[in-house]
Structure of ATPase:
Amino acid sequence: MATKAPSTASARTKNAQSSRASSDAGGARRASGGAPEFTLSAEREAELLREAESLGDNASLFPGKLARRVIWSSRIQLAAERDAADLVRTPFAEGEPPLTPEEIGGLREKIELLRVVQSRWQAAQQRQERAAAAFVKPAAEAVQIKQSLLRFFDLRFKKSPEGQKRLMAIRAGSGDADLVQDASDLLLLCAEHAEAVHKAPRGEGAAADRLRELSPLLARMLADKKLSLETVRSRKLRDAAYTLVVNAERRLRAAAEYWYAGTDKMKDYAPFPASRGAYGGGEEEGEEGGESEEAEPEDGESEEAEPGDGEAGDDGESP
């Protein structure tokens, strides 16, 4: 029997599926900012890190929303590449260097640097959070042992003002660092009264032995859960990389204002709206009172919070 030719309806179905696939792909490209994947070379990364570190205390705090920020900044960079022939001829103020094609292309590198250092900051932060979580259980055990040994020494030092002072000093502090120090102080008392401790009938000797095991562990874990130099540096570099992006955008925006003020092209250079949601307009990041033009989200972009942008585990310090 001859093979039946495909029906017209079947052909229409395939065309519709192909059209939807093409549309989905286009939406994905728009959501990613329209720019192909980009990798920063190690040499260029080192140069940009030096530039970022040179900002010192002049860096702005990164406000979060990394994924949206990258999409937004990439759109500005693509617009600047499109309009480069005009922008490089902008008559900036005296003493301010002119825009160059290299500077326009350099925004792409600064955006990628922001992505890289944010990943490093998050990795350092997550290590700190894991250390803080691991500290909880042995710390709770040490607190119980501390109370048990203090009861023993309260009785032993009932007629010793000097001993009572030592116990008061151990009880005076609070917090993780004090617990680590209290364990060390208690172990010294246990060593001075070793025979009495090990003869005590409620397991004080075993408690002292266990505290001796926990003490160095707690000290090491306390150091790990604190804000390490690596974490502090990662955060500062993240903020500095963000500042490089914002400063580069402002230069491009100033040039675009000269050429395209009052035209639809200026929408491509709008500052990232920080004060009224991710895309609803508002003040520009890092500026006081600057109003941005209204801009709508690209197809497929979400208004929900970005994962990994939080600053948890930072011991109450600003991000």
Summary: The radius of gyration is 31 Å. The mean pLDDT is 81. DSSP finds ten helices and no strands in the chain.
